[in-house]
TrEMBL record:
Residues 2-147 form the Phosphotyrosine protein phosphatase I domain. The active site is at C8, R14, D123. It comes from Selenomonas bovis. It catalyses: O-phospho-L-tyrosyl-[protein] + H2O = L-tyrosyl-[protein] + phosphate. Signal peptide: none annotated. One of its GO terms (molecular function) is protein tyrosine phosphatase activity. The keyword Repressor does not apply. This is protein-tyrosine-phosphatase. Belongs to the low molecular weight phosphotyrosine protein phosphatase family. Transmembrane segments: none annotated.
Length: 159
């Protein structure tokens, strides 16, 4: 099982959006049995909160299934549990580097780096622009899926 973790500041806007988008992309690719996807917060501000209403509206509009959930904090043991940890911005990356002791296994990446872009996914908590965030998340998740499909053994790639 290949495990992906998305992280953002509070785990209510960007990282759950990425979690649900990636789950749907993985399902459509026939990889749901081979790939696990989750999300966490780097900060404690929103722990226990459900996904932001703006994120839920955008996912619904795009036909991406989602479920009720509670924001959770990323922990040191998550570093061992997940194969790839995709951060939404540089602050998240700094938090991950502190938490993991400098990312010795090279698991932490900005989400858009998979799409060849060294930039952040803007936080719609501040911008109010869930459309732009969704487009960035979708671009990053599609690129991550392409990388993942190359990593999986040939027999696991498609059912």
């Amino acid at each position: 099982m290949f495990r992906i973790l998305f992280v953002c500041h509070g785990n209510i806007c960007r990282s759950p959006m990425a979690e649900f988008v990636m789950r749907e992309l993985v399902r459509r690719a026939g990889l749901a049995e081979e790939v696990a996807v989750a999300s966490r917060a780097c900060r404690t501000d929103e722990i226990g909160s459900d996904t932001h209403a703006g994120t839920r509206r955008k996912l619904r509009a795009e036909g991406v299934p989602f479920e009720r959930r509670a924001a959770r904090l990323v922990r040191r043991e998550d570093y061992e549990r997940y194969d790839v940890i995709a951060a939404m911005d540089e602050e998240n990356m700094r938090d991950l580097l502190r938490l993991t002791g400098g990312d010795p296994q090279g698991k932490c990446h900005l989400l858009l780096s998979f799409a060849g872009e060294e930039r952040e996914v803007a936080d719609p908590w501040y911008t109010g622009n869930f459309d732009a965030t969704y487009e960035d998340v979708l671009r990053g998740c599609r690129a991550l899926l392409a990388v993942l499909e190359k990593r999986l053994p040939a027999g696991e790639a498609r059912a």
